[in-house]
C-alpha cells in the first residue's frame, strides 16, 4: 500500500547500479545472531519460498482473518499481546516500520530533526527522509527496531527504501540508498530479527545476500516479477501483492516463479484473495 502508482518505473531501471503457492516450512539460518548487544543469542527466522501470508496494516490485527503461517502487521498499532496471540496460533509475525519517510502521526515523530525532513511523499502527514544523515537516523531506527523486538516480532518490513528513485527534495543517489538499506538490515540482524527488502528491484543483485526475504507490490502489473528470482533462488520468500490485477492474470506466473502472491485492497485491511 505504501507504493504509489509507478509512473517512475522507467526511472528505477535507469538508476540501477548494475544491471504453486504451496505452504513450505520455515527454515533457520545457518548460525546464531545476537538479538541485541546485551541480549541472548537466538536463531534468526528464514522464511522460504511459497509461504502463505496475510498483510494487514489497517488498524489492530484480526488474527482470525486468514489461516496462514505469516502475518505482516503495523509495528506501532499492535502490541506484544497481539504478537503473542499470533504466536500461540503457530504464526510468524513481521513488524511493518516506515524507515524512509517521517510520519507526523507516530509517537516518536518529535525525535526526527527538522533537517532530515524533505518533501511530501504523497501520503497525508508524511515527508521523505534524508537518508544520507545516517548519524541522525540510525538511533531513531534502532529504537524502532528495539520496539519490534520487545513486542516479540520475528522480522521487520522496512518501508520506503527506494527514495533515491523519487522526488524527495534531496539529491539522493543509488549509492546513498545502498548504504542506508544495508544499515537497516544490520540493525535488524543485530536484534535477531529477519528483514525484508521492500520493492527496490534494481538493487536486488546487491542486496539479496543482505536481506532475508522480499516484499513486493505490483510486480505483475508492471511485468517485473522475474526480477525477484534471485531471492527465490537463494531459498528466500518473496511476499507479493497486487491491487488491481485479477488473480487469474498473475497467479499462474506467481506459481511458476515461487512467489507468495495474493490480491489485496489498497487500504490493506483484512480482505485477501490468495493464489
Automatic annotation (TrEMBL):
Keyword field contains Signal: yes
Signal peptide boundaries: 1-24
Coiled coil: none
Pfam families: Glyco_hydro_114 (PF03537)
Protein keywords: Signal
Superkingdom to which the source organism belongs: Bacteria
Record-linked PANTHER family: ALPHA-1,4 POLYGALACTOSAMINIDASE, PUTATIVE (AFU_ORTHOLOGUE AFUA_3G07890)-RELATED, ALPHA-GALACTOSIDASE
Protein known as: Glycoside-hydrolase family GH114 TIM-barrel domain-containing protein
Amino acid at each position: 500500500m505504501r507504493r504509489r502508482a509507478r509512473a517512475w518505473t522507467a526511472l528505477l531501471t535507469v538508476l540501477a547500479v548494475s544491471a504453486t503457492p504451496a505452504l513450505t516450512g520455515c527454515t533457520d539460518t545457518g548460525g546464531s545472531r545476537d538479538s541485541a548487544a546485551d541480549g541472548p543469542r537466538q536463531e534468526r527466522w528464514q522464511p522460504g519460498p511459497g509461504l502463505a501470508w496475510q498483510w494487514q496494516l489497517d488498524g489492530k490485527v484480526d488474527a482470525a482473518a486468514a489461516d496462514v503461517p505469516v502475518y505482516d502487521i503495523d509495528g506501532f498499532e499492535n502490541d506484544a499481546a497481539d504478537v503473542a496471540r499470533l504466536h500461540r496460533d503457530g504464526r510468524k509475525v513481521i513488524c511493518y516500520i516506515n524507515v524512509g519517510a517521517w510520519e507526523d502521526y507516530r509517537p516518536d515523530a518529535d525525535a526526527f530533526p527538522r533537517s532530515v525532513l524533505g518533501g511530501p511523499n504523497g501520503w497525508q502527514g508524511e515527508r521523505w527522509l534524508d537518508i544520507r544523515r545516517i548519524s541522525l537516523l540510525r538511533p531513531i531506527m534502532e529504537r524502532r527496531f528495539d520496539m519490534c523486538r520487545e513486542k516479540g516480532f520475528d522480522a521487520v518490513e522496512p518501508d520506503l527504501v527506494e527514495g533515491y528513485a523519487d522526488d524527495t527534495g534531496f539529491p539522493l543517489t543509488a549509492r546513498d540508498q545502498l548504504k542506508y538499506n544495508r544499515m537497516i538490515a544490520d540493525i535488524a540482524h543485530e536484534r535477531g530479527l529477519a528483514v525484508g527488502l521492500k520493492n527496490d528491484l534494481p538493487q536486488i543483485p546487491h542486496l539479496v545476500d543482505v536481506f532475508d526475504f522480499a516484499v513486493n507490490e505490483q510486480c505483475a502489473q508492471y511485468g517485473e516479477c522475474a526480477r525477484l528470482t534471485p531471492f527465490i533462488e537463494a531459498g528466500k520468500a518473496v511476499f507479493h501483492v497486487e491491487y488491481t490485477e485479477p488473480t487469474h492474470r498473475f497467479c499462474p506466473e506467481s506459481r511458476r516463479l515461487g512467489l507468495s502472491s495474493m490480491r489485496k485492497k489498497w487500504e490493506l485491511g483484512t480482505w485477501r484473495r490468495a493464489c
